[in-house]
From TrEMBL:
<feature type="site" description="Raises pKa of active site His">
    <location>
        <position position="131"/>
    </location>
</feature>
<feature type="domain" description="Formyl transferase N-terminal">
    <location>
        <begin position="2"/>
        <end position="167"/>
    </location>
</feature>
<keyword id="KW-0658">Purine biosynthesis</keyword>
<feature type="binding site">
    <location>
        <position position="93"/>
    </location>
    <ligand>
        <name>(6R)-10-formyltetrahydrofolate</name>
    </ligand>
</feature>
<dbReference type="GO" id="GO:0005829">
    <property type="term" value="C:cytosol"/>
</dbReference>
<keyword id="KW-0808">Transferase</keyword>
<protein>
    <recommendedName>
        <fullName>Phosphoribosylglycinamide formyltransferase</fullName>
        <ecNumber>2.1.2.2</ecNumber>
    </recommendedName>
</protein>
<comment type="function">
    <text>Catalyzes the transfer of a formyl group from 10-formyltetrahydrofolate to 5-phospho-ribosyl-glycinamide (GAR), producing 5-phospho-ribosyl-N-formylglycinamide (FGAR) and tetrahydrofolate.</text>
</comment>
<dbReference type="InterPro" id="IPR036477">
    <property type="entry name" value="Formyl_transf_N_sf"/>
</dbReference>
<comment type="similarity">
    <text>Belongs to the GART family.</text>
</comment>
<feature type="active site" description="Proton donor">
    <location>
        <position position="95"/>
    </location>
</feature>
<dbReference type="GO" id="GO:0004644">
    <property type="term" value="F:phosphoribosylglycinamide formyltransferase activity"/>
</dbReference>
<comment type="pathway">
    <text>Purine metabolism; IMP biosynthesis via de novo pathway; N(2)-formyl-N(1)-(5-phospho-D-ribosyl)glycinamide from N(1)-(5-phospho-D-ribosyl)glycinamide (10-formyl THF route): step 1/1.</text>
</comment>
<dbReference type="InterPro" id="IPR004607">
    <property type="entry name" value="GART"/>
</dbReference>
<dbReference type="Pfam" id="PF00551">
    <property type="entry name" value="Formyl_trans_N"/>
</dbReference>
<dbReference type="GO" id="GO:0006189">
    <property type="term" value="P:'de novo' IMP biosynthetic process"/>
</dbReference>
<dbReference type="InterPro" id="IPR002376">
    <property type="entry name" value="Formyl_transf_N"/>
</dbReference>
Length: 209
């Protein structure tokens, strides 16, 4: 979330982050967002009798800000079909794997356990099928000797912090289109794969400032 806000401000997107909403009142990002002058809100899921009740309240809170897009950045809740349908084509998530590989939780451990040689992240539109929506961008990192889930997660986070802001900017600029066969096209055909070769590497390993 912080990477998205900072990129929006630094790169002067034709958009602004209108609100940050968390499912835990103690989420550290809320205080940071408040310090940036961004509206915040929190709904604790345990205060609601059902998943449907929580999602209805969340939907009401989100709609109060009238967003064009809803970006899920570390929002660790499985959303109901009703919520997903309400924001169809406007709800975007980042998942810590190269989808369709390793949907769900513990993706870094799954990658190490299966012996794949590459791992990463995927920015995608959310659909009722968990972690299977149309892909906007991906980030790729190598699996290194002696890796642990924690070490692997650090490298994935680096490409997450470049792939998600890039995708969000394309959305803000109106460049992202869904085709009839549910694939994503981006006007101008920018590089949509971000490959890790070090902390300051950009797409395909090119250094960036």
């Amino acid at each position: 979330m912080q990477a998205l806000v900072e990129a929006c401000q630094r790169e002067q997107w034709p958009a602004r982050i209108v609100a940050v909403i968390a499912s835990r009142p103690d989420a550290a990002g809320l205080q940071w967002a408040e310090g940036q002058g961004i509206a915040t809100g929190a709904l604790y899921h345990k205060d609601f009798a059902s998943r449907e009740a929580f999602d209805a309240a969340l939907m009401a809170e989100v709609d109060r800000h009238q967003p064009d897009y809803v970006l899920l950045a570390g929002f660790m809740r499985v959303l109901t079909p009703g919520f997903v349908g309400h924001y169809a084509g406007r709800l975007v998530n980042i998942h810590p794997s190269l989808l369709p590989a390793f949907p769900g939780l513990h993706t870094h451990a799954q990658a190490l356990a299966t012996g794949v040689r590459a791992h990463g992240c995927t920015v995608h539109f959310v659909t009722p099928v968990l972690d299977h929506g149309p892909i906007i961008a991906q980030g790729c990192v190598p699996i290194l000797p002696g890796d642990t889930p924690e070490r692997l997660a650090e490298r994935v986070l680096d490409v997450e912090h470049r792939a998600f802001p890039a995708a969000a900017r394309w959305l803000a600029e109106g460049r992202v289109k869904l085709t009839a066969d549910h694939r994503v096209e981006v006007e101008g055909d920018p590089e949509r794969l971000f490959i890790w070769t070090g902390a300051q590497a950009g797409p395909h390993g090119k250094n960036h400032e």
